[in-house]
Amino acid sequence: MTTTNTAKPQAAPHTDSIVLREGLVLVFWSVAVMLIVMNTTMFNVALPQIMKDFGLSSTTASWIVTGYSIVFALSSITYSRLSDYLSVRRLFVIGIACLGAGSLLGIFSHTFVMLLSARLLQAAGAGSGVALGVVLVTRYIPLSRRGRSMSAIISTATFGMGLGPVVGGVITQYWGWNGLFIITSLIILLLPVLYKLLPKEAGNHVRFDFAGALFIGIGVTGLLLFMTTGNLLALGAGILLLLAFWMRIKRNDQPFVQPELLGNRSYMLLTFMGFAAFAAHFATLFLMPLMLTRLFGQSSAMTGLLIFPGAILSAFLSNPIGRMIDRYGNHYMLRAGSLLLLTGAVLFGWLSGTSPIGILFIYIPMSIGVTMLTTSLSNEMSRILPKEQIGAGMGLSQLIQFVGGAFGVAMSGKSIAWQKSLPPADVYANIFWGIAGILLLAVISYYVYRTRQTAIVQTT
């Protein structure tokens, strides 16, 4: 199944003499990331209408988000790993081409299969946005300014997350969900500008572990299919392919994921925190439109407006969060972010069935907590990982985070089906109590991580 190669790993593209036009690149890249994130949240608001148009169950409809998240995750780490061999500029062109093709297919989709195919093709390109943005920041921007640069990208992503439901709700209500693909296609206009601004890196010969990528992709998909359908064949295939993936990365000299990362306990604790945060946030964004529509009869446009304040407030706080990280370090935000997420989940479990305004205000601490946690996680990982592992480590982290998002959405859809005999308000409350349990584990993981880091400092 595998072949062992004794050749030395390829070096990353040569960057010593390259100066990044930091301000301009961050501005245009952030806009691209905003459109990519909008592409996700716009469709969350449209899910109730899509379910109605195609007669879908919540479990089936969840795959519009789950499938997108899986492909997005795999493409993210793929672009990160390929950035060790190919220029960021070339990879960005490939990503935008896939995203544009998916958007074009989506505009003319009239069946669920066409819609899902369009979303998967979009995801194959959309993964380039955040992944390559992190590579640019960690490769070209000094650590002293890295927190602010990370927060610039995160803030526009968060703004897109907040703007997405508003734009998506209005377009879905008045023009239909096919119009959402038109908004995403606007990213093509940024391609000529960014292509000119991005560094001209000298690439290397590509030796990419496509088999490893295939094994982990199908393996994770198999496990998620089992969770949502109970299919034992999917479970068996998922387990076997993940075992094959583990064997391959141990024997391959240039694996898809470096096994050293999986053995780095501090890194894995941070990664689990990201998994839990994305599982909670994606599940919340999946559930909120369903709650607002089914419990309170809100329209698509009003649903978007009710989600908007939490996300937009989080976006406005992103730059202060970045400055606080640069000044005080990452630990404060890691702790505060995880606790805010847990608070939001508990409040959703307790009060979400009371009123639409209650949902609006409960989402605020959760949205702010996600921004705090994701910004500080990326910065902390870039601090603790060896330089030669940063690209792969960031890619693996994003893979696990979006698998977490897919897990959260898939299990939420399945949980709704499991509890169909209960009152709807109780169904959503029970799911949020489960989410709170996952976030409690994330809080515990942070304190274990802090203890480990303190011990490492004391012994050096």
TrEMBL record:
<feature type="transmembrane region" description="Helical">
    <location>
        <begin position="177"/>
        <end position="198"/>
    </location>
</feature>
<keyword id="KW-0375">Hydrogen ion transport</keyword>
<dbReference type="GO" id="GO:0046677">
    <property type="term" value="P:response to antibiotic"/>
</dbReference>
<dbReference type="Pfam" id="PF07690">
    <property type="entry name" value="MFS_1"/>
</dbReference>
<feature type="transmembrane region" description="Helical">
    <location>
        <begin position="120"/>
        <end position="141"/>
    </location>
</feature>
<keyword id="KW-0813">Transport</keyword>
<comment type="similarity">
    <text>Belongs to the major facilitator superfamily. TCR/Tet family.</text>
</comment>
<keyword id="KW-1003">Cell membrane</keyword>
<feature type="domain" description="Major facilitator superfamily (MFS) profile">
    <location>
        <begin position="25"/>
        <end position="454"/>
    </location>
</feature>
<feature type="transmembrane region" description="Helical">
    <location>
        <begin position="332"/>
        <end position="351"/>
    </location>
</feature>
<keyword id="KW-0046">Antibiotic resistance</keyword>
<feature type="transmembrane region" description="Helical">
    <location>
        <begin position="300"/>
        <end position="320"/>
    </location>
</feature>
<feature type="transmembrane region" description="Helical">
    <location>
        <begin position="24"/>
        <end position="47"/>
    </location>
</feature>
<feature type="transmembrane region" description="Helical">
    <location>
        <begin position="91"/>
        <end position="114"/>
    </location>
</feature>
<comment type="function">
    <text>Resistance to tetracycline by an active tetracycline efflux. This is an energy-dependent process that decreases the accumulation of the antibiotic in whole cells. This protein functions as a metal-tetracycline/H(+) antiporter.</text>
</comment>
<feature type="transmembrane region" description="Helical">
    <location>
        <begin position="210"/>
        <end position="226"/>
    </location>
</feature>
<keyword id="KW-0406">Ion transport</keyword>
<dbReference type="InterPro" id="IPR011701">
    <property type="entry name" value="MFS"/>
</dbReference>
<feature type="transmembrane region" description="Helical">
    <location>
        <begin position="59"/>
        <end position="79"/>
    </location>
</feature>
<keyword id="KW-0050">Antiport</keyword>
<keyword id="KW-0472">Membrane</keyword>
<keyword id="KW-0812">Transmembrane</keyword>
<feature type="transmembrane region" description="Helical">
    <location>
        <begin position="390"/>
        <end position="411"/>
    </location>
</feature>
<dbReference type="InterPro" id="IPR020846">
    <property type="entry name" value="MFS_dom"/>
</dbReference>
<feature type="transmembrane region" description="Helical">
    <location>
        <begin position="431"/>
        <end position="449"/>
    </location>
</feature>
<feature type="transmembrane region" description="Helical">
    <location>
        <begin position="269"/>
        <end position="288"/>
    </location>
</feature>
<feature type="transmembrane region" description="Helical">
    <location>
        <begin position="153"/>
        <end position="171"/>
    </location>
</feature>
<dbReference type="InterPro" id="IPR036259">
    <property type="entry name" value="MFS_trans_sf"/>
</dbReference>
<protein>
    <recommendedName>
        <fullName>Tetracycline resistance protein</fullName>
    </recommendedName>
</protein>
<dbReference type="GO" id="GO:0005886">
    <property type="term" value="C:plasma membrane"/>
</dbReference>
<feature type="transmembrane region" description="Helical">
    <location>
        <begin position="357"/>
        <end position="378"/>
    </location>
</feature>
<dbReference type="GO" id="GO:0015297">
    <property type="term" value="F:antiporter activity"/>
</dbReference>
<dbReference type="GO" id="GO:1902600">
    <property type="term" value="P:proton transmembrane transport"/>
</dbReference>
<keyword id="KW-1133">Transmembrane helix</keyword>
